[in-house]
Structure formats: C-alpha cells, structure tokens
Amino acid sequence: MKSNFIHTYVSVDCVVFGFENNQLHILLVQRDANKIDSNNMKLPGSLIYDDEDVDDAAQRVLLELTGIKRMKLKQFHCFASPDRAKNPEDMKWLDQTYQPNINRLITVAYLSLCKIDRKLTNVSKYRSSKWCPLSEIPKMPFDHNRILKESLTEIRKWIEMDVSIAFELLPNKFTISQLHHLYEAIYNRKIDIRNFHKKIVPLNDVVPLDEKQEGVSHRAARYYKFDKHSYNKRKMTI
Amino acid sequence: MKSNFIHTYVSVDCVVFGFENNQLHILLVQRDANKIDSNNMKLPGSLIYDDEDVDDAAQRVLLELTGIKRMKLKQFHCFASPDRAKNPEDMKWLDQTYQPNINRLITVAYLSLCKIDRKLTNVSKYRSSKWCPLSEIPKMPFDHNRILKESLTEIRKWIEMDVSIAFELLPNKFTISQLHHLYEAIYNRKIDIRNFHKKIVPLNDVVPLDEKQEGVSHRAARYYKFDKHSYNKRKMTI
DNA sequence: TCAAAAGTGTTCGATATACACCCATGC
DNA sequence: GCATGGGTGTATATCGAACACTTTTGA
Fold first, then answer.
1. What is the pTM of this model?
2. Which of A49, A85, A149, B60 has its CA 20 to 30 A from that of A97?
3. Where in chain B is the domain with CATH 3.90.79.10?
4. B104 contacts: CB under 8 Å, gap ≥ 6
5. Does domain A170-237 sit in CATH 1.10.10.10?
C-alpha cells in the first residue's frame, strides 16, 4: 500500500468575463484586506466544502461575489501542478486565509459571464472586487495568469457551441454594433461589419425593437433583444 | 476558519480508445483479481502521488497499462460529485486497494488513443485488461459509465481540432476504407464514401503507398500512411 | 455641410451534399 | 460471370470573404 498518494485540498477559481467600452473585462478580487493595490488582485475562488461538487462550489463563489444565483458557468480545466502553490507568499496567504499546512492545492477552473452593468452585491468575504480590462491584467498569485490565458481560448469554443452566451455579456437591449465589437474582442481580430450583419439577420432569436439610440451625434442605431426562451427551443449558431 | 473544507483524494481515470472491426473499443481493466467476470471491469485509473501533476498521473497509468510512453492524451473533465464514491461496494474496494477512510474521491478524466493491434505489456498492477467494444460496455463502478459517455462527445471535438489523432487509432498502414469507417464510428452516422475521398485527397500528409491489400476477394485497396512530421509543421483539418 | 457611425448588396471562390458508374479481384 | 468492395466525377447549393456606397443624425 502506497503511502504517498495525495491527500489534498481542492479549490475552484472563476474567470468571470464582462464587456464594456468594446473591451473584455475580468472580475478580479482583492486578495488581502490590508494591502490595497492593484498588484494584490486574484481570480475569485474558494476551497470546496466536503459535501459540495465543484460546480456547486463555483456557483457559491459567484453568488458570494455578485449576488447572482445560477450564473452561466462552464468548467474548463483542472490545474494540478505540484508547484502551483509553492510560492512562499502564496503559501502564507493560504495559511492565513484557510488553515495551516495546506501542502498541496489543486484547482478546477471555471468560465463565467456577467452583464458588466449589473449591480454586484458582494457579500462579506470579498472586500473589494473590480472589473479589470483584459489589457491591464496585473500579475496574479498562483497560476491565475495562466488560467486566465487558457480561458480565452475556451470562451471561443464555448461561443461556437452556444451563441446564447454572447448575449450574457451584453445588456438586455443592445445594438448590432455592440455585438460586433464583442465578437471582435473575443476573437481579437477585425470582423467585416457587412458580413457580420448578414450573419445576424437569419438569427430569429435576435429581435429588433422599435427603440433607437438617443442623443448620439450620428445616425441612431436600432436596439435589439435576444429571445432566450425561443432560442432554447431551437439552437442556432453564428 | 471553516473546518469543513474538503481534504480529499484525487484520481485520474483514462478512457482509452481503440479501433478494430469498424468499431470503437475502450480499454477496460479488471477491478478485482479474485472476481473474474465482465461485470467486474472499470476504466483504468489511479490516485495521484503527492509530487505528481494530474497529466503525469494519467501518463503513468497508461504506461503501467500498456507499456507505452508518452501516449496522446487529453484532460477533459473533473468529476467531483460528493456521492460518486458512496456506493458501499466501491468504498470497500477503495479501502482494500488504497487505504481506509477515503471518504471522498474526486477524479480527473482523460481521453487517450491507442493502436489496438499494439502488443500491450501490462505491468504488475493490472491483472487483466480487455478491449471492449463500445456497444458492449458493462455497468462499471463509480461514475465510469458517465465518464465514458462524456468522452464520446469529447473525442469528436478533439478530432475536429486535430485530425492527426484519427491516425493514432489506425495501424501505420491503413486503407481509406478504414479511415472512413473510423469516422463513421466516431460520429455514429453514415458518411458518403465518395465525398469522403474528396476530403482526403487534399491532405498532403496522408500519403499513398505502392503497397496494396492481398488475398481479398475483391479489388485490393491501396495502403496509405500518415506523415506525422510533415503534419506537425502545417496543421490540416478534415 | 460636415463628421461619424448605421445600414445595405453583389460577386466570387471554396466547401458541402447528393448522386451513379466503372474497376479489380477471388470464387 | 458474378459478387464484393475499391475508386472516380459531376452538378448544385450553401457559406464565407472581399469589397463601396448611401443614410441618418447632431453639431
């Protein structure tokens, strides 16, 4: 009987995407209450409880972080390098935050999506959270930078399998231009707007409203909404 | 400080695909030495060691199982339901095989591929392993049946991202017919052979050999080989 | 009337699908 | 010569990429 089988702690970490000013943002939390600077941010996450599936743990983290129940969420990878939590500072933080002698920590990473204009109602645990533009992500503890990087290829796969996730990132009323910029941000490349329009037209679940933009110094764009119920019946793809 | 954060064991389980007689097969291992029957099979797997990444653990399992180093391998999901190891028989087996009081077990599932005609050199640990046709998979312990089911959608995604994995399942010399049947098996639907040929032609890395089938009672099929090196330089897709 | 973004159509090439016949071989 | 599977070609529809101009609005 082997004695060195691993007995470890397991955490979940969530990469929560938002979209604003034509840029993807990630929701980061402050790691320590006493150190308030942007080099002190991390992905939101938590150790999992003993009666909790990892999916449930991720939902709990998101609920505590945003006040939103049942957010869209997708597990994408388990990170388990033996030295992912071996940085002395990270180990000290684990000691203080959870309990001493966490000698190894495996994490399951999740993707999630949030309308960035939603009012977030942080509960206790997270002193401060912040939407950080993708271009300004600081160095983070553990392997959180790597997790974030891999989440970018995952969000593309996800949107290809299920367009509806795009609309999780947009306000309820949005313009085609916003949707277009979102796709450009996710794929990190220019997408021809004329061809883009043509792809949207056949999507019956993207429905034009009578309402238009107001107070813009150019032709006002029409607002659209996404009909989730109708979509869930017959799936579509962009 | 919460006391009910989980301190758990972590395992890897591998779904190893093979292909023979136009059917996908899965490599299963016998669970107990003393109970020799087909209702006693499971996915190959192992607890991970304390200095081991999950990827390495999966490689180790495959090495012990097949004698092959560095098999193609892809992590696809972490299964962590609190009651996935709560069946009394499964708990008893964990007790006996590893150590007592494994109260919770989380597993990370892997996909892998093997040429089914390779001679496997089992080492110690696995008394017996067996290629089981997909259509004859028995009821297995833990959530292994669910893991297997999810692996089927994963292998499609994988082959779409990287054709070369198809050739991991075929002999070094193969006919277009074999490749065709493999695709039909993976997608579980008929694929028009004429159109299939047309897709293969432009793939420069599938190279025709001078050799043909012998002793078949119909027109002999040409053998092809897959040029892995050439492929790795410029990726192609089917 | 100008600036700025909204919105619209056409052409072309590539790809996917559907479908039917001749070829080589062993019996 | 016939049964069996191997191998090829053509027509059509669909999709994606490239590309330029007119419209609406506020300033």
1. 0.94
2. A149
3. 2-161
4. A50, B6, B8, B9, B82, B85
5. yes
The string of pLDDT tens digits covering residues A15-38 is 999 999 999 999 999 988 766 666
Question: How many CB atoms within 10 Å of residue B131?
Answer: 18
A50 vs B4, B47, B48: nearest CB: B4
Residues of chain B with CATH 1.10.10.10: 170-237
Neighbours of A238 (CB within 10 A): 14
Q: Which nucleotide is nearest to B221 (CA to C1')?
A: D6
Residue pLDDT, tens place only, B121-141: 876 565 689 999 999 999 999
Q: A146 in helix, strand or coil?
A: helix
Mean of the pLDDT values across residues B201-227?
A: 95
Cα B11 to chain centroid distance, Å, stands at 16
pLDDT (tens digit per residue) in A66-89: 999 999 999 999 999 999 999 999
CB atoms near residue B56 (< 10 Å): 16
Helices (H) and strands (E) in chain A, counts: 7, 9
Residue that has been written with the tokens 């813009």 in this structure = A216
Residue type for position A227: D
Three-point CA angle A28, A18, A64, nearest 5° = 50
Half-sphere exposure (Cβ direction) of A1: Cα atoms closer than 13 Å: 8
Chain-chain contact of A9 with B8 (C-beta, under 8 angstroms) = yes
Interface of B with A (CB under 8 A): 1-2, 4-10, 47-55, 75, 77-78, 80-82, 98-99, 103-104, 106, 108, 157
Contact across the interface for A75 and B77, Cβ inside 8 Å:
yes
CB contact under 8 A, B8 and A5: no
- Flag whether pLDDT at B172 surpasses 70: yes
A175 touches strand C (CB under 7 A): yes
Q: B124 or A46: which carries more pLDDT confidence?
A: A46
Mutate to test the interface with B, among A2, A4, A6, A108 (most CBs of B within 10 A): A6
CA angle B53, A7, B63 (to 5 degrees): 40
Please list every residue in chain B whose beta carbon sits closer than 8 Å to the beta carbon of residue A47: 2, 5-6
Class of domain A2-161: alpha beta
User: Residue A131: phi, psi to the nearest 5?
Assistant: -80, 120
